[in-house]
Amino acid sequence: MKRANVYLIPNTLGGESLSDIIPADVSAIAISLRTFFVEEIRSARRLLRKMDREFPIDDCTFHIMGKSIKEKLPIILLDLSKRGENCGVISEAGCPAVADPGAEIVSLAHDMNMEIVPLVGPSSILLALMASGFSGQQFTFHGYLPRERRDRIKKLKDMEADAFRNGRTHIFMDTPFRNMHVLEDMVNELSDATPLCIGYNLTLHGAYVKTLSVGEWKQRAVDIAKKPAMFLIGTKR
Amino acid sequence: MKRANVYLIPNTLGGESLSDIIPADVSAIAISLRTFFVEEIRSARRLLRKMDREFPIDDCTFHIMGKSIKEKLPIILLDLSKRGENCGVISEAGCPAVADPGAEIVSLAHDMNMEIVPLVGPSSILLALMASGFSGQQFTFHGYLPRERRDRIKKLKDMEADAFRNGRTHIFMDTPFRNMHVLEDMVNELSDATPLCIGYNLTLHGAYVKTLSVGEWKQRAVDIAKKPAMFLIGTKR
Asked: ipTM greater than 0.90, yes or no?
């Protein structure tokens, strides 16, 4: 019997069109499936309907990922596996199983000898890294910064020191409503010479990405409040 | 006058088809350009011809990235900038400006206030991370491992310790002809319980990705010699 595949289906980063961010075959695979593990049913349905206006949403099963499904997950996967039925994992934005509970499903699917098929789509981490001009030979993604200001500043300074010493690029983000605080901390606490890249609205209308020194950012008014933003600290060649 | 854009155009990971890895609009943008910064002219031409069989290669200017162009680069970019002419950066495989000299061009283009536009395409780093089932909340890409066996083993053990202690995922690779040595070192030197993901031929025919414990890899014959492979050390949830 055929092995069941688990397709990792990228979602948009919030934009409307798919033709600039999703390869045609990825959509074709996604709309061939009827069982999905999703972060939010609404955004998954929206994606599938964009891929195919006639997509039979009502014939599908949507499992919401996270704690509520944890106990049932082995049984659901075992059942799919037994029946050789493929399924998909859809995150709320971007590539699934990177910064969402999808990784748990993938991990368990490996244990059950299901085949994992990652599909190509937008990742704000990777797009920001490409556009920064910083080294991608070695880089670290840190996720969200610490919430406490003192911890946050220590983290920022540690990243700055490592970038300077080892040439490694550091990528991080924060919840959009804290973006201006993060920028303020960087501008006040990091060295004026440190290269800093800020990207926001990537793949969206009004996309912006710019690398300047901290000293130059000080002189520049940039409104990143409530926008999905990525920050990168690196070195100039 | 219009600002000149620098488009970062993803290439295949070695496969034949584009429809599974390149969004339609990305191809449309690429074939609208006539000036390219490329790692290798041949692979860039092959990509453009795949995007459009009628693509007028002979009307294009291809600049090979790297040392030979370093001195002329500011003049070339200034000229494009003045004329408001868009250009593209194409790597030999995958997303440009991550692990190739493209980052230098992006860095200089930022200084000249050109607009950088990263486009969506395949990245073996990201595809492997998605498919590993390991945490993507925090991860480090290390590029190639040290060539000396002693240094390599130290590096592997450092990554294992950090994954165990901090839950961070570590991603690395090596030149394909050293893959079997790397696997041997991991199987002999790391703890049997450590989760290890190996992926190869991603997006290609015969793609493979599997997460097992080091102890399980010991029992399994896997031929990764001379294949483009990614290795990941992480933690099981």
From this structure: yes
